[in-house]
Amino acid sequence: MRKTDLALRALTRLSETGQLIHAADLAESIGSTRQFIPQVLSPLVRAAWVTSVPGPRGGYQLAVNLEQRSLLDVIELIEGPTDNGRCVLGGPCPADTSCVAHDAWTDARRALLERLAATPVSTLGDKPEHEPRGERS
To answer: Within a 10 A sphere around the Cβ of 44, how many other Cβ atoms?
Structure first.
């Protein structure tokens, strides 16, 4: 989910400036490297959310309204489909032979996806980097 976090940070930064940002400047502002930016943003460029201008004067610019894009949209663009048909217990869970956790898992998944879909990217804002696990004071 590191790419998704960086993609969200990049979208926020691009939205704040409203103009073309060089890859190196964008990378620095979101805590990444210039070399990693194309990997993070390529799904957003392919989806036409972000425009990419090559060359020494190039960079990235936001091409969509983040009020109309959800957190779920970003997650699925970067990570792929969230509903992979797998059970919380590990394997496929066909309806005719569902596991004992099937109904609870289905309800929880539905609630999570609804919440993510109802959260516009524009409301997320930029958050400081998370502390690494085990290093909280």
So the answer is: 24
**HSE-CB for 6 with a 13 A CA cutoff:** 22
Helix (H) or strand (E) holding 77: helix 71-79
Q: Is the pLDDT of residue 131 over 50?
A: no
- Summarize pLDDT for 52-63 with one digit per residue, the tens: 999 888 899 999
Dist. CA 9–CA 27, nearest whole Å: 10
Which whole-number Å values give the CA distances from 116 to 34, 38, 45, 112, 113, in the listed order?
A: 29, 25, 22, 6, 5
- Model confidence, pTM: 0.80
Query: What is the amino acid identity at position 4?
Result: T
Q: 89: how many CB neighbours lie within 10 A of its CB?
A: 11
**Residue 83 contacts residue 113 (beta carbons within 8 Å):** yes
